[in-house]
Amino acid sequence: MTSTDSLALSAAATSNGRDLLTTGTFGVINPATGEVFAQAPSVTPDQLDDVFDAAQNAYLSWRIDDEYRRDALRRAADVIESRTAELAPILTFEQGKPLADSTLEFNLAATWLRYYADLDVPRQIIRDDAQGFEEVVRRPLGVVSAITPWNVPIALAMWKIAPALRAGNTIVVKPSPYTPLATLALANILRGTFPDGVLNVVTGPDPLGEAMVSHPIPRKVSFTGSTSVGRKVALGAADDLKRVTLELGGNDPAIILGDVDVDAIAPSLFRSAFANNGQICLAVKRVYAHESIQPRLVEALSEIARSVKVDEGTVDGAVLGPINNKPQYERVKDLVADAVSNGARATAGGKPIDRDGYFHQPTILDQVHDGMRIVDEEQFGPALPIISFRDEADAIVRANRSEYGLTASVWSGDADHAAQLAPQIEAGQVSINMHGGGVRPHLPFGGHKHSGVGVENGPWGLHGFTELQVIAGPSRQ
Ligand code: NAD
Predict the structure, then answer these.
(1) Ligand 1 atom index nearest CA of 406
(2) Ligand 1 centroid – CA 123 distance (Å)
(3) How far away, in angstroms, is 216 Cα from ligand 1 center?
(4) Which pLDDT band, with edges at 50, 70 and 90, does 21 fall under?
(5) Which of 17, 10, 21 shows the shortest CA–CA distance to 43?
(6) Higher per-residue pLDDT: 365 or 6
(7) pLDDT band at residue 466, thresholds of 50, 70 and 90?
(8) What is the mean pLDDT of residues 331-357?
(9) Which ranges of 145-258 would DSSP assign to H, the alpha helix?
(10) Which atom of ligand 1 lies at the shortest distance from residue 229's CA?
(11) Which residues fall within 8 angstroms of residue 290, CB to CB, at 6 or more apart?
(12) What is the pTM of this model?
């Protein structure tokens, strides 16, 4: 299959189960070349009226039949699995990630659909006796406005689509303008699987995102992206008191105690920081390593960084692709240059790769400290600072000294001791001897502090797409 065959799938926005006619388009850049390789439809804020109307109409019948919805989610999972070979290259061309990682995203999408299809959402009878009848039910909210980022566009869209639809809502999804095509293609292949208007996807440059928040029809905005935009979403949604879930940025610390086997943990720690080029909200973004093992850890991570194959995502054996977009590429370059000019030492990498596109060497930074931008800010790229600490309690204070609180990890030869430290860290998830170990369909995922509001996944994620309703009356006995 050629890239053009697969991209033909993604030509139009999906509204009400069919193409939404748009006059404008915008270019989509392949980050491996830096060149525009496809056009995506530019849906104007005005056209959102039709899309949200369609979603509103579809909601009236979609919310009724729970078993029908479960079946539709299962059918959607089957369709995605049967078309993943066509879909994955689209994601790789626009996002940059290796084909295996794109394939994984679609596999995860199917997993999430099946999880929510199988999840029971019991009605809760509180009382049904001689005194009276009381029941608590979860009602869907109506139409959901979903906004996603460019780093993991399909899996993160499905964290919204699967629970929202299962709960009986309909949805309009707006992917990032950097990665519109795979989500358009996803909606395209699912036409007919869901009734018209249930799953709609629109694309366009911002201010389309703002319009997704301010539109009067949706009753909920489910947003994944940066903390700065998340704040704007919260403000925009406040006007008509839309519900919000915000999955935002992170500056996730890994604390490595002095009793670890450095060589044993280094490959896993490296993957936790550099998978998807570090462009994962929960990637390890700063390492606090005990001074007794810090030099050896720097060496071990640097060896791995130097050996990793960085190439176009379509090339066999590529482990890391390019950074997704020019602003992000420039930001990583700036943060690394800033660190080096302030005394850091790049023990691996340290520079962009001299070729077209947005390639950057996987970079390990030694002689770094709190107060450097690379430590204090979210780099969201392939550069990792390894900070030395002496005292465990101090490492925890420093890990917590951040506006963010998404995920964290503690690594130790003594897992019980690590587990005792874990609750002291201000984060939505703390893993022991691994990082991001709790990202599963059945576990809640969400940020503390400025990393988010609300959670996704598990029954809790579904609850976020519902409101409680009490039904009460005299005894029915
Ligand atoms: P971003 O905030 O720039 O954009 C996210 C989405 O919001 C895009 O679709 C964008 O078009 C849209 N948008 C932009 N302005 C808007 C506005 N005013 N109103 C509504 N929508 C608007 O983020 P990004 O650069 O695409 O993604 C990277 C960020 O996302 C990082 O900070 C990362 O940590 C975060 N992220 C968080 C999670 C999580 O689950 N917590 C997951 C992935 C990424």
Answers:
(1) 41
(2) 35
(3) 21
(4) confident
(5) 21
(6) 365
(7) very high
(8) 98
(9) 153-166, 181-189, 208-214, 227-238
(10) 2
(11) 256, 257, 258, 388, 389, 390, 392, 395
(12) 0.97
Q: How far is the CA of 236 from the centre of ligand 1 (A)?
A: 15
**150 in ligand 1 pocket by Cβ < 6 Å?**
yes
Q: What's the rounded mean pLDDT across residues 374-400?
A: 98
Tokens of 383: 């550069």
Q: Does ligand 1 have an atom closer than 6 angstroms to the CB of 372?
A: no
Which helix or strand (DSSP H or E) is residue 66 part of?
helix 66-95
Judged against a pLDDT cut of 80, whether residue 2 lies above it is answered with no
Atom number in ligand 1 closest to CA 147 = 9
For ligand 1, whether the C-beta of 209 sits within 6 Å is yes
281 Cβ inside 6 Å of ligand 1 = yes
281 has catalytic annotation: yes
Among the options 94, 105, 281, 456, which is catalytic?
A: 281
**What does the pLDDT look like over 28-58, one tens digit per residue?**
999 999 999 999 999 998 899 999 999 999 9
- Residue 369 class from Cβ within 10 Å (0-12 exposed, 13-18 middle, 19+ buried)? middle
Q: Which of 28, 105, 147 to mutate for ligand 1's pocket (most ligand atoms within 8 Å of CB)? A: 147
Give the amino acid at 262: V
pLDDT single digits (tens) 192-207: 999 999 999 999 999 9
What type of residue is 50?
A: D
Measured between alpha carbons, how far apart are the two ends of the chain, in Å? 65
The 3-state secondary structure of 231-257, one letter per residue: HHHHHHHHCCCCEEEEECCCCEEEEEC
CA of 37 to the centre of ligand 1 (A): 23
Residue 11 pLDDT level (bands cut at 50, 70, 90):
low
**Residue 476 to residues 30, 135, 137, 472: CA-CA distances in angstroms?**
64, 12, 18, 10
Query: Tell me, what's the pLDDT at 78?
Result: 98
Helix, coil or strand: residue 102: helix
Q: Which residues contact 236 (CB under 8 A, 6 or more apart)?
A: 210, 213, 214, 221
Look up residue 357 and give its two tokens: 């596109």
Instruction: Provide the percentage of residues in the chain whose pLDDT is more than 90.
Output: 95
Pairing relation of β-strands 466-473 and 133-140? antiparallel
What is the distance between the alpha carbons of residues 246 and 452, in angstroms, rounded to a whole number?
5
- The closest residue, in CA terms, to atom 20 on ligand 1 is 209
Per-residue model confidence as pLDDT tens digits over 275-328: 999 999 999 999 999 999 999 999 999 999 999 999 999 999 999 999 999 999
Q: Report CA-CA distances (Å) from 467 to 55, 140, 161, 245, 340.
A: 19, 6, 17, 13, 51
Q: Could you confirm whether 378 is annotated as catalytic?
A: no
